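Q: I'm writing a short methods note and want an example of a predicted protein-small molecule complex. Could you take the sequence and the SMILES for zinc ion and return the bound structure as tokens? Please keep the output block clean; save any remarks for afterwards.
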Amino acid sequence: MRRAAFRQALAAWIAVMAGTVVHAQPSASTSRPSLSGCQTTQGSVYFDFEGASRSACYVEDERTLSIVVTPEHLPPINPSPWYAFRYSVPKGQKLIVNVRYIGARHRYAPQWRGSGDLSAFSVKVAHDKEAVSITLPPGEGVVSGQPLVTSSHYDQLLGQLAKSGRGSRLILGRSHDGRPIEAVRLGNADAPRLVVLLGRQHPPEVTGAMAMDAFSLTIARLVSSGAIDGKQFQFLIVPLLNPDGVARGHWRANLGGVDLNRDWGIFNQPETRAVNHWLSLLPAQVRPVLMLDFHSTNRNLFYVQGGKAGAQGKAFLATWLGGKENAFAGYPFKIEPRDANAGSGTTKNWFNATYGIPAYTYEVDDDSDPVAVRAAAEALAQNLIPSLFFALKE
Ligand SMILES: [Zn+2]
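A: Understood, no commentary inside the block.
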């Protein structure tokens, strides 16, 4: 699109207060943007489901729609545009959807789920990476930046964790929207050593969520089989810490417009506060010994403590991850020691500073092979407690 037309469309989008479905106007080459969806004789797109992106749609011509995906606030706090829309294209037709990013570049390759001919689905990323053009086949489907993993998935996961790990399901608090911040606790409530697993602070980071699913389910099996002693170790598993952001298709923040991974220690947001509140009520003999926070980025890596790691932290790192960088087929990773400034608000830094424990960010490549992600996560979960046990004796 020409720059002037784009600016005009953006200005119009900002002026739109509420969405109505836009229909192609025979007299107009571009229509007024709509927040709910748009349609022509060649097809339609809508944003009316959980996880759909915050987008405005307008009609360029009968066979071309444009979607402007926007961050939850401007300027974007992280250039990782999330998009998700559903579409319908009549038999014999073909629809082109141009996804345009505001202040950001293409990050997530489109995932397609739907009926019709997959070979007719094609994707072209613009040279400047500020847009992607998607050709859709006849039929119905959903296109999204990563697989849609929303509240129903977590409802099932939490049920499965509680059942297979013989744990209990907890509500730690509520989000701005009133959604529950749910957790599962595995092991005995008075087991002295607590491992905290957190996920989905950043809504689009689905590969990290896949790793966390496999990791947590493995821990649950090990607890119920007795391979992990539930009298010694307990786990708090919070797989969906930003339910509003996930449901509303945010790029990064919660509904308070805050990056939750900058709110630790500050605790201005209900989601982080809920976890901190639960931790503050722990009996005196129960202490966190490890925290893992699952995310996604453009490669597989672990952010770990640098000079701030104590002797036990160093022993744990060496035993759990050291030398394993190429041990998992299809899942090479790097270990990046990084001490944050005090008060940075990151989960990793807060847990380390507050409890003096290893606190790692488990980052999974956006484009990782899901089978390899799961296999590596399962193997790492298997080795977690033996490594911790060894380190705690140091
Ligand atoms: Zn992240």
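A: Remarks, as requested: The chain is about 25% helix and 30% strand. The helical segments are 3-15, 151-164, 206-225, 243-247, 270-280, 311-320, 347-355, 370-392.
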